[in-house]
Automatic annotation (TrEMBL):
<comment type="similarity">
    <text>Belongs to the V-ATPase 116 kDa subunit family.</text>
</comment>
<feature type="transmembrane region" description="Helical">
    <location>
        <begin position="334"/>
        <end position="358"/>
    </location>
</feature>
<dbReference type="GO" id="GO:0046961">
    <property type="term" value="F:proton-transporting ATPase activity, rotational mechanism"/>
</dbReference>
<dbReference type="GO" id="GO:0051117">
    <property type="term" value="F:ATPase binding"/>
</dbReference>
<protein>
    <recommendedName>
        <fullName>V-type proton ATPase subunit a</fullName>
    </recommendedName>
</protein>
<feature type="transmembrane region" description="Helical">
    <location>
        <begin position="596"/>
        <end position="615"/>
    </location>
</feature>
<feature type="transmembrane region" description="Helical">
    <location>
        <begin position="537"/>
        <end position="554"/>
    </location>
</feature>
<dbReference type="GO" id="GO:0005886">
    <property type="term" value="C:plasma membrane"/>
</dbReference>
<comment type="function">
    <text>Essential component of the vacuolar proton pump (V-ATPase), a multimeric enzyme that catalyzes the translocation of protons across the membranes. Required for assembly and activity of the V-ATPase.</text>
</comment>
<feature type="transmembrane region" description="Helical">
    <location>
        <begin position="566"/>
        <end position="584"/>
    </location>
</feature>
<dbReference type="GO" id="GO:0007035">
    <property type="term" value="P:vacuolar acidification"/>
</dbReference>
<keyword id="KW-1133">Transmembrane helix</keyword>
<feature type="transmembrane region" description="Helical">
    <location>
        <begin position="682"/>
        <end position="702"/>
    </location>
</feature>
<keyword id="KW-0375">Hydrogen ion transport</keyword>
<feature type="transmembrane region" description="Helical">
    <location>
        <begin position="502"/>
        <end position="525"/>
    </location>
</feature>
<feature type="transmembrane region" description="Helical">
    <location>
        <begin position="475"/>
        <end position="496"/>
    </location>
</feature>
<keyword id="KW-0406">Ion transport</keyword>
């Protein structure tokens, strides 16, 4: 369970196996996919390595394989296509003869042997007919039909000389001429034979197409399988180039990084590979101690891989540094939903994600980069949709409309006479009416059970209410999110036993943030809980500004009795945290280095130049420490202010999304709903289609992408920089499964 919240514990292992079993051993490790090989020959160029010839052979095999398969496939396809074209040509001729015989039966009622029959393209027939009339001045009989894309014609003439001229004319127009018997019985026999041959050719053409498809499918399957085997061999020999070979050329030495929990699996795979090769000696696995920084390995599933990719895009975490991905799985879709809060839009997004989840294999076969990105982030989209449904219910917003499930806590009836000041004349004379909660019965005293009261959807001051509510909510969420990030830094300090950073960095950071912005949250919550008139209620923003300026002279700046001394104390404490952050850690390190310097002087008294050199480097490193700590202090103190303001994007984008949704409703769909004429249903159908298209393109795609990017920035900049360094390097094991997925 601990590996879920931080990277896996890794170990450096030395492997010894015989040369004849090396191929099988590495093959087993590649199928296991849990081993990263170290390069034991970093100073050796590529062409001087031991197995460079085998790597080149694999590359040559890839080239030959592609050439062999494609040449062979090309030759087979040429032969198949040539036969298919011949069959199609014969099929076309038989179909033309069949139509020609039909024309004969329709127009030839008595035997006649002076005629020319054939088939000509449809677009050439008018010119052919015109030239016939000009040459023979009507001394012929022409009959034709247009069965498909060609004209079937029969020309009856008186003499053989004219018939010869017509044949030459047909050759000039590239018309196909066919002999036809002038006997009805012979034509019937010929037609029967033609139909039989047509059916045979149809069957042959169908089998030819099936054989062609089978050939292409088999070639594709074999090509992928053979290419995968060659790539696997190439990867094995490339890995062997990272290893060392002893003088006798019989033993291979390798160093690998692997998770401690999978060390037994690695050993088992090596033994299995050695047994396959028939080696007499089992591989030796020796775990060694090292000061090198191991790679970072976070196990992922299909559900968590998308969130881990978001974290790794910011930077791969340091070794065993706390992993933000488990927390991001909750906070990222939630912050997105705060900006995208609409249960209708969230439901559409959830259904889209479910569609991607259920048909992921089909979408991956499309080999489209954009679709692959959506499929990889299908669970992110799914959670964003679910959280958007939740926040939409909190906002009581579904396509800019509200649900009145539990009944509003506000009532209009008590405002009328005799209990209230309203009369019938008040309704006619006033453009806006104000509900007074002090009048008995107007407000029940019990808030709406879940979410925002639906009466605010028809209130004229709806925007002012939601503006104040969402802005303060954004500040509360932002400060809580940042405090959570600072708290996670404490988990890192404790895990790495860095107790001095707990006292010199974590404690002043938390006190600084709580003294100012924790108190700001207290003011917001206190003002929400205390009953006061809106005219006399002080502004939280002015209260906070006056607190920083120590200005208590203006009226209306007091929210509770002991406000002034509490605020002065908190500001003084926050200011004192700045020098604590700035000087405490560098001075402690300076004292420690000064002690080390004194010990080095005693130890190296005779080596004057060496001591002098060490002293200069000590001074430079201390200067770097002071500069680094100063940058960190300034960044943190100013960042608390700027980051808190940055979380106001939750308020801004939430209001923008709600207003855009309301604009689409009022200016598109509501216009069609008000039409009562006979064509109202047609107009409603067209308008609803436009409303759906605009909702998907603007509110779901554009607004969704905008909220996604803003939530991403809040996690990368405002949240993760409080505890996450992200300066490690990723664990890249030898994995044949990953190679196959990348093809």
């Amino acid at each position: 369970m601990d590996s879920f919240f931080r990277s896996e514990e890794m170990c450096l292992v030395q492997l010894f196996f015989q040369t004849e079993s090396a191929h099988n051993c590495i093959n087993e490790l590649g199928h296991l996919g849990l081993v990263q090989f170290k390069d034991l020959n970093p100073g050796t160029v590529a062409f001087q390595r031991r197995f460079v010839k085998e790597v080149k052979k694999c590359e040559e095999m890839e080239r030959i394989l592609r050439k062999y398969i494609f040449d062979k496939l090309e030759q087979e396809l040429k032969e198949i296509n040539s036969n298919r074209d011949t069959l199609r040509q014969n099929f076309t001729q038989l179909m033309e003869i069949n139509h020609l015989l039909k024309v004969f039966d329709a127009f030839l009622f008595y035997p006649h042997d002076r005629f020319v029959a054939g088939v000509i393209k449809h677009e050439r027939f008018p010119a052919f007919e015109k030239i016939l009339w000009r040459l023979f001045h009507g001394n012929f009989v022409l009959r034709h039909e247009d069965p498909v894309k060609k004209d079937v014609f029969v020309v009856f003439v008186q003499g053989d000389q004219i018939r010869g001229k017509i044949r030459k004319l047909c050759d000039g127009f590239h018309a196909s001429m066919y002999p036809c018997p002038n006997n009805a019985y012979a034509r019937k026999e010929m037609r029967t034979n033609v139909n039989t041959r047509i059916e045979d050719l149809r069957l042959v053409l169908k089998r030819t197409e099936e054989f062609r498809e089978t050939t292409l499918t088999a070639a594709a399957a074999n090509l992928q399988e053979w290419a995968s085997k060659v790539k696997k061999m190439k990867a094995i020999y490339y890995t062997l180039n990272l290893c060392n070979i002893d003088i006798t050329q019989k033993l291979i030495v390798a160093e690998i990084w692997c998770p401690v929990s999978d060390l037994n699996s690695v050993h088992t795979a090596l033994i299995h590979g050695s047994e396959q090769s028939g080696s007499s000696l089992s591989p030796v696995v020796n775990r060694i101690q090292t000061q090198q920084t191991p790679p970072t390995f976070n196990r992922v599933t299909s559900f968590t891989s998308g969130f881990q990719s978001i974290i790794d895009a910011y930077g791969v975490g340091n070794y065993q540094e706390i992993n933000p991905a488990p927390y991001t799985m909750v906070t990222f879709p939630f912050l997105f939903a705060v900006m995208f809060g609409d249960c209708g839009h969230g439901l559409v997004m959830t259904l889209l994600a479910l569609w991607l989840i259920l048909h992921q294999e089909h979408f991956r076969k499309l080999k489209n980069e954009l679709i692959d990105m959506l499929v990889d982030g299908r669970y992110i989209i799914f959670l964003m949709g679910l959280f958007s449904i939740y926040t939409g219910l909190i906002y009581n917003d579904c396509f800019s409309k509200s649900f009145n499930v539990f009944g509003s806590s506000w009532s209009v009836r008590p405002m009328f006479h005799p209990h209230g000041p309203w009369t019938n004349d008040t309704l006619h004379d006033s453009g806006h009416l104000h509900l007074d909660p002090l009048v008995s019965g107007v407000y029940s005293g019990n808030p709406y059970p879940f979410g925002v009261d639906p009466i605010w959807n028809i209130a004229s001051n709806k925007l002012s209410f939601l503006n104040s509510y969402k802005m303060k909510m954004s500040v509360i969420m932002g400060v809580a999110h940042m405090l959570f990030g600072v708290t996670l830094s404490l988990v890192n300090y404790i895990f790495f036993r860095n107790l001095k950073d707990v006292a010199l960095q974590f404690i002043p950071e938390v006190i600084f943030m709580l003294s100012l912005f924790g108190y700001l949250i207290f003011l917001i919550l206190y003002k929400w809980c205390v009953v006061m008139k809106s005219e006399s209620a002080p502004s939280i923003l002015l209260l906070f500004i006056n607190m920083m300026l120590f200005d208590y002279s203006s009226e209306g700046t007091v929210l509770y009795r002991t406000q002034k001394p509490v605020q002065i104390f908190l500001v003084v404490v926050a200011v004192l945290m700045v020098p604590w952050l700035l000087f405490a850690k560098p001075l402690l390190l300076y004292r420690k280095h000064k002690q080390l310097k004194f010990l080095s002087l005693l130890f190296c008294l005779s080596l004057f130049f060496g001591v002098k050199k060490a002293f200069v480097s000590l001074q430079v490193s201390m200067a770097d420490i002071f500069v680094y700590q100063g940058i960190h202090t300034i960044e943190y103190c100013l960042g608390c202010i700027s980051n808190t303001a940055s979380y106001l994007r939750l308020w801004a984008l939430s209001l923008a999304h709600a207003e855009l949704s309301e604009v689409l409703w009022k200016m598109v769909l509501q216009v069609a709903l008000r039409v009562t004429s006979g064509m109202g249903s047609v107009l409603l159908a067209v308008t609803f289609a436009a409303f759906a298209v605009l909702t998907v393109t603007i509110l779901l795609v554009m607004e969704g992408l905008s909220a996604f990017l803003h939530a991403l920035r809040l996690h990368w900049v405002e949240f993760q920089n409080k505890f996450y360094k992200g300066s490690g390097y990723k664990f890249t094991p030898l994995s044949f499964d990953r190679m196959r997925d990348m093809q």
